[in-house]
Amino acid sequence: MYGNLTLFAVGANPDCQNAANAINENSERPELQQFYLQALGQSQVSQPADSEKSYLLVFETSNFKPYQFTGVCTTGSIVASLNQTDGGISSYAVALQRLMPTLYGQLEYLGKSETALECMLISSMIDGANATAPLRLIGGLDQHTMIEFIDQFPGVSQLGLFEGLKRGNASLTYLYTFRNKMWSETAQWWI
Questions:
Q1: Of 31, 38, 48, 177, whose CA is between 20 and 30 Å from 97?
Q2: DSSP-derived 3-state class of residue 137
Q3: CA distances (Å), origin 186, targets 20, 23, 49, 102, 143
Q4: Is 108 inside a domain boundary?
Q5: Do both 167 and 83 map to the same domain?
Q6: pLDDT at residue 92 in the model
Q7: How far apart are CA 122 and CA 131, in angstroms?
């Protein structure tokens, strides 16, 4: 998980914690001045720590993979039962984005399946695209290629705009595929 150390900084506790949160939430990489932190040089690293201060260590992610997409399958009964969305299929995507704003980006694909197994299989393959040899390409390709990949599974079909406005059907499972904000191409570092 941890690669090379890219930054060793010192500052007040809330400032270090705020900088760590910004990095872990995949916000833009923070500037030291923004959080009132001071980078430590090679000679300062070996000095005793000051118990009145906090320290921030930023590492490259050793297993970084640029996963562009992330998938989640939800049963139609759960989609239909969410009062805040009136059970709407497309509205459920917005609920997911609100619940996990640092993970789920723009909705790229909305599909349905009569079998939860096939939906879960696709979702797992999308989420592990870079770890699975035949699917390694998905992480580096565009939305069109990802949709072509999903279309290889005959039990899953894409929902159109008007069908997405309907209430969830308890006999179906829905595949929501989003732009993955957690593993963006710019977030190659970790706290």
A1: 31
A2: helix
A3: 16, 11, 31, 14, 19
A4: yes
A5: yes
A6: 95
A7: 14
Range of the domain at 33: 2-61
The pLDDT value recorded for residue 9 is 85
The answer to whether residue 186 sits within a structural domain is no
Q: What is the pLDDT of residue 189?
A: 47
Q: What does the alpha-carbon distance between residue 117 and residue 173 come to, in Å, rounded to a whole number? A: 9
In a domain, 95, yes or no: yes
Domain match, 29 and 89 both: no
- Classify residue 189: in a domain, yes or no: no
Q: Alpha-carbon dihedral of residues 78, 84, 90, 92, nearest 10 degrees?
A: -50
Q: What is the pTM of this model?
A: 0.62
Query: Consecutive 10-residue runs of the chain (191 residues): their mean pLDDT?
Result: 77 82 67 79 78 82 66 93 92 92 86 90 75 44 70 86 92 91 55 42
